[in-house]
Every structure is written in C-alpha cells, then in structure tokens.
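Late entry, evening session. Most of the bench is empty. Finally got around to the prediction I had been postponing all week. Sequence below, unchanged from the version circulated by S.P.
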Amino acid sequence: MSELSKQETIRALLWLLDAGADEAISETPVSRLGASRASLASGSTERRPDRSLDTSSRPSSSQRVANPAVAEAVSEGRDQTDLVGRALEAAAQCATLGELKAALERYEGSQLKKQALNTVFADGNPSGRILFVGEAPGRDEDRSGLPFVGVAGKLLDLMLASIGLDRTSAYIINVLPWRPPENRTPEPTEVAQCIPFLRRHIELAQPEILVLLGAVAVRHVLGLAEGIMKYRGRWMEYRVGQKMIPVMPTLHPAYLLRQPGHKKLAWRDLQAVEKRLLTLGLRES
C-alpha cells in the first residue's frame, strides 16, 4: 500500500469508526436481492421463508474474522488519533509560553522529536507584537535549538532590518518544532501532532501582526493549500481568542535564496507590513 493511499485509508476508517462501525466482516459485497431476482427470472412462484430476523445462521462476533490489513490500519488510525488528542490536551493546559515550551519538551508522541537533536521553540521577543512563522528547523537550527540561524536565517535578519526590525523587536517560530530527518517532507500525521502546539503558541504570543513565511506556514495556519504566489502580498486575517489579527503571507527566505529575482516581491510585502505597523502604532514614523 502506498503512503498516500495508506493515509487515505486511515482517514476513511476513522470516519467509519465515528459513524459507529467497529468491525469488518468480508471484503466481498453480498447482494440481498440477487436470489429474489433469480427466482422471478426463472418464473418460480415458490415463497422463500423470511430470514431477515433469523440470526441462528449468522456468525457471532467472536467468529467473524476481520481483514488483517484493515484491522492494522484501524489500529494505526486509533493510535494516531490518540497522539493528536494528547497533543491537543497538552497544548490546551499551557497558560504561558514557558509552560508551552516545557510541554513540547515533555511530549513523547512525535517520531520527529525522537530523531531530532533539539526542540526548536522560538527566538526573539514576543512582546514585539509581530510574529513570523516559518516551516521547519534545518540542520543548523536543530543543532542550536533556535529558528532561522542558518543561511536562510541570515537573509531573514536582513529582511527584518529593511523595515526596522530585529530579533529584539520581532518573534520567530516554525510550524514544526522538530527537524524532519534529512529535511524530508513530514508525514501528515507528524504535522497533525504539531499543529495544536503551533496554534496555542500563536494564542499565547498574542501578536498584533502575523507574517507567514512560505506556503507551508500558510497551509497550516490559514488552511489554504494553493501555492504561495496566490496569497503573498494580500492581507488576510486569523482569529486569536476573540480578536481577528492581520496576516501577511510572503516568500520564505530559503525560496528567495533559490529565486533571488523574487526578492522584489518580498520587499513589497515587507513594505506593506511596515505600513501596518505604523497604522497600529507599533512603530514610530
């Protein structure tokens, strides 16, 4: 079974479990009308006994044998749901950023964490009221335990400086607090375990402006799945408690290193952010 179809199977089985299904009896569908139609076709008028309420010939629950592959997928789906539930519970109990960091360091449900060197929580100043959200730690971040410290991080520092910010006046986090091995694309279940901590992180930081760096941040914060070029440069909104805060999607520094010609687009986005900072009174003119 491919990884994609495996994830689709798990999601379908979880839906069936929620609907009340708890066992698989057979892989082969049974037509309950086939016998009656065959009798009509042959001209037979013999009345067959109604066995709809006769359970004597039906196998008991203990006699039914579920398909092993289906049973394994159901079990895995339940395990993944439990891990996400534990992450939701752990994140919800945190009342401060310090408690959230401690909860992440205690959480043992993530395979990403087991293979990472450090939990990469955040850098900068949450009191600055502007929050930048990246994708995931790389090798340098995993070693240091801080986000954006490699080559892309140096470019981010220049981007911040271009609008009068630095790490003492801005706050920086990632969607994932742990590096995927060899920087591979994380599995959907691996991301799902991190999202409760991400959302709680944003709630506790209480930013006045949110800047999303790249398509991955846009997908997991706003739930928008198309490419970053569709969203960058457009003000959007995100609910934090009872408040809607402005969100600016823009290009990730790592992307700009590969496509330097698009730096002019990021510069336009940053200028819009600077203007909003002035409008909100977070910066002096």
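Two things to note before I forget:
Residues 170 and 276 are 14 Å apart (CA to CA).
The mean pLDDT is 83.
Will write this up properly tomorrow.
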